[in-house]
Write a structure and sequence with these properties.
CATH architecture of the largest domain: 3-Layer(aba) Sandwich
Shape: elongated
Oligomer: single chain
Radius of gyration: 23 Å
Largest sheet: 5 strands, mixed
CATH topology of the largest domain: D-Maltodextrin-Binding Protein, domain 2
Helix content: 25-40%
Number of strands: 12
Number of helices: 9
Order of helices and strands: HHHEEHEHEHEEEEHEHEEEH
CATH class of the largest domain: Alpha Beta
Strand order of the largest sheet: 4-3-5-12-6
Distance between the termini: 58 Å
CATH superfamily of the largest domain: Periplasmic binding protein-like II
């Protein structure tokens, strides 16, 4: 067996520079000087006989085709080296490092704060970076190794991902006080809205209209947005109704305008909120700990 020529330190420099988008930013992440970082990257490229980056003065770096191909495996090597070091330190060794968590945009402000606060109370040396995106993009990012795991709706999730349930979310109708159905004391039938203007959250799975499809209705979409609070503001100004899942504790907008919430009478499916990660991946100890903590946090469901 021949010994590898390159060191894990140099590979870690490669991953840091690729993720940060520049040599200087990657050096700061690793607490190295820029000169030491540049030397490590140059040595790694010489040892591999490949250019990993295209350097741009005053802009940063971009990966070459070879660099993109090697980055996923480089991330795996660094992750497993960290895990090996943690195992060598024993089960009582403190959890450290960064957790990169993807999240469906409308859920972030509801789910992330209690998880960050609670987990960092137990593991103060762990830091977080959250990435908001559609579930399609989050899945691709997880499989590419740029995100550790994601908080998603368990709807249309691909077979390459493993999942742990957090809680079930129930959709409801959001109305302005001026809407003709606002004072209804009964759950509302989606068919009762007819051609009323509908305000849609324009990001998967909201863009799939899965609720309306379940009851054979096509809504009259007049506004689309990816911003949850903007949906609420448009509804409060009586510009349309909305069907949403996450519910703030107070039914008022940031302007202080009131909103009316009505349950849906139709037998529409619930959405399960889950943690997801690549099924083939051996999870780092801090990621496994975060999964267990998240499941325990929401074991009794989500409460606004």
């Amino acid at each position: 067996m021949s010994l590898p020529r390159m060191s894990l330190r140099k590979i870690a420099c490669f991953v840091a520079a690729a993720d940060a988008g520049s040599v200087s930013a990657g050096a700061r992440q690793l607490s190295l000087s820029q000169a030491a970082m540049s030397e490590a990257l140059n040595d790694l490229e010489k040892e591999l006989g490949l250019d990993l980056f295209i350097r741009h003065k005053a802009i940063g770096v971009t990966l070459t085709c070879a660099g993109r191909q090697l980055l996923v495996e480089a991330r795996r090597l660094v992750r497993e080296a960290e895990e090996f070091q943690a195992l060598a330190g024993g089960p009582d060794m403190n959890l450290t490092g960064e957790l990169v968590v993807g999240c469906f945009p409308t859920m972030l402000s509801f789910v992330a704060p209690p998880l960050i606060a609670g987990f960092q109370t137990l593991h103060p040396e762990v830091t977080f970076r959250f990435v908001e995106d559609s579930q399609f993009n989050l899945e691709h990012a997880m499989l590419a190794g740029t995100i550790d795991l994601s908080i998603v709706y368990d709807f249309g999730v691909g077979p390459a991902l493993e999942r742990r349930r957090l809680y079930d979310a129930v959709a409801y109708v959001l109305l302005s006080p001026q809407h003709r159905l606002a004072n209804s004391t009964e759950p509302v039938d989606l068919a009762a809205f007819g051609d009323d203007p509908f305000i849609q959250i324009d990001v998967l799975p909201g863009r799939d209209d899965y609720l309306f499809a379940a009851v054979g209705i096509t809504p009259n979409i007049v506004h689309r947005t990816t911003n949850f609070e903007f949906v609420r503001a448009l509804v409060a100004h009586n510009l349309g109704y909305a069907v949403v899942v996450q519910r703030p504790k107070n039914d008022v907008t940031t302007e202080g305008l009131p909103l009316f919430v009505r349950p849906i009478a139709n037998p529409v499916p619930h959405l399960t909120v889950s943690l997801a990660w690549p099924a083939h991946l051996h999870l780092h100890r801090r990621v496994r700990a975060f999964v267990d903590f998240s499941v325990e946090t929401f074991k009794n469901g989500y409460h606004a």
